[in-house]
Write a structure and sequence with these properties.
Blueprint: H1 3-8, H2 24-38, H3 41-54, H4 58-83, H5 87-94, H6 98-129, H7 133-149, H8 153-178, H9 183-191, H10 198-209, H11 213-224, H12 232-261, H13 272-311, H14 319-340, H15 344-372, H16 384-412
Length: 413
């Protein structure tokens, strides 16, 4: 497969030719599709808001969320790619109608998250240029639509995502150093926290592997032909790498905001993340953060739209038709965002919490296939230790999801 074809698979199904081993481009595309979907406006906003609320104690929630993320992605990516079937397809095979029910939940969660992504992009333009959040969000949605209307967008998008990921990490590192956070206290609170908030943990998990994000990379790998038992080890490395990228980003952002909060500065409630960077790095920091937030918003709009549409279409759909459906998805999300007029920060936190509630349902399906449906895994002997770890995480997710329902209700009261 050529480089351009491989890269373009991030937007259009381009299965590998039979007998040809998929290249590194498809693997990197899947990893960064998951990572950039996770490292979006919701990710930045949630981490900043919760750091301002909890201080160093948020370190414990971040640690738990990273461990859960790894356990979830190891199981989800392996089951889906070994079977060669998307999550909704597996659901319908296991129990007729289950796949469509899951698709509906993920689709609704994708809409909620994409409204938040558009809102977050609006926050980014506000930080950069002082534009009205609604106007900035609308313009950002149009950029996302333009990407899916362009036949060659995939090549540029994959490269830009890698560059933006590096820029975001470097920016986080710079601000984390500039803000001079109390690292010792953060390490202590990570192990022995003064405060544990289940809603916060569920929201962090939902923002990185909840809802559509759980399946973004795995569905991309399936579309790129990286499937079957022979690719199980490769898929494991890709999935863990993606979680590590998001984990590093969250830790650096946590330390950056913590350094500001530790000085006693009261951050703005309507755009906490932007204010934190402004306080830490001055006017330049604010503008740079706005640029990264906008880029994260647009890339997440693309990731959410792409993955959500894969849940309500088959693998045989024509690329052009799926692109048009994706354009419609983004357009509807933009209209809802303009109509609701809800504070963007509230939307972003709600989206993560909602996806955290969806996660136990989808994860239970994956574990059932791994445990009972070896026929769907082409005879692959699923590692028992991975299944046990997944079962433990599932119980924890159910508990966290139940507790987060109260948090969601409180958020909108």
């Amino acid at each position: 497969m050529s480089e351009s074809t491989t890269a373009d698979a991030s937007i259009r199904d381009t299965p590998e030719s039979p007998g040809v081993r998929p290249g590194k481009g498809a693997a990197l595309g899947a990893m960064f599709l998951m990572a950039t979907s996770a490292i979006g406006p919701g990710f930045l906003t949630q981490t900043s808001v919760f750091t301002a609320q909890m201080g160093a104690a948020l370190g414990f929630a971040i640690l738990i969320s990273i461990l859960i993320d790894i356990a979830v992605q190891l199981n989800v990516w392996r089951v889906l790619t070994v079977s060669g079937k998307r999550a909704n397809e597996l659901g319908n095979i296991v129990l007729p109608g289950l796949g469509w029910a899951l698709a509906a939940l993920v689709f609704i969660g994708g809409v909620a998250f994409n409204i938040g992504n558009i809102a977050g992009a609006g926050l980014g333009t506000n930080a950069m240029f002082g534009l009205d959040v609604k106007l900035g969000g609308l313009l950002s949605a149009l950029v996302g639509i333009g990407i899916f209307l362009s036949k060659k967008a995939g090549v540029a998008l994959d490269r830009i995502i890698v560059i933006l990921g590096a820029v975001m990490i470097l920016l986080m590192l710079y601000v984390a150093i500039a803000s001079n956070p109390p690292v010792g206290e953060a390490l202590k609170q990570t192990v022995l926290p003064d405060d544990i908030d289940f809603f916060v943990i569920t929201t962090l998990v939902g923002g990185t592997v909840g809802g559509y994000i759980t399946f973004a990379g795995a569905h991309r790998l399936i579309d790129s032909g990286i499937t079957g038992p022979e690719n199980a080890g490769r898929v494991t490395r890709i999935s863990v790498s993606g979680v590590i990228v998001t984990g590093v980003m969250r830790i650096l952002l946590f330390l950056a905001v913590l350094g500001v909060v530790a000085t006693g500065v009261a951050l703005a409630e309507d755009n906490t993340a932007a204010d934190a960077f402004h306080q830490a790095a001055g006017e330049v920091g604010l503008r740079m953060f706005g640029m990264v937030l906008w880029a994260a918003g647009v890339s997440s709009v693309v990731g959410a739209a792409y993955t959500s549409i894969t849940f309500v279409t088959t693998q045989n759909i024509q690329p052009r038709n799926r692109n048009l459906l994706t354009v419609a998805f983004i357009a509807v999300c933009a209209v809802i965002f303009l109509i609701l007029g809800t504070a963007p920060q509230t939307l972003l936190i709600f989206a993560g919490a909602f996806n955290g509630v969806i996660l136990p349902i989808a994860f239970a399906l994956v574990l059932w296939v791994a445990w009972k449906r070896r026929d769907l895994l082409k005879g692959y002997s699923y590692p028992k230790w991975l299944l046990v770890v997944g079962a433990v995480v599932l119980v924890l997710e159910i508990y966290l999801g139940w507790n987060s329902l109260t948090g969601i209700a409180d958020l909108w009261n």
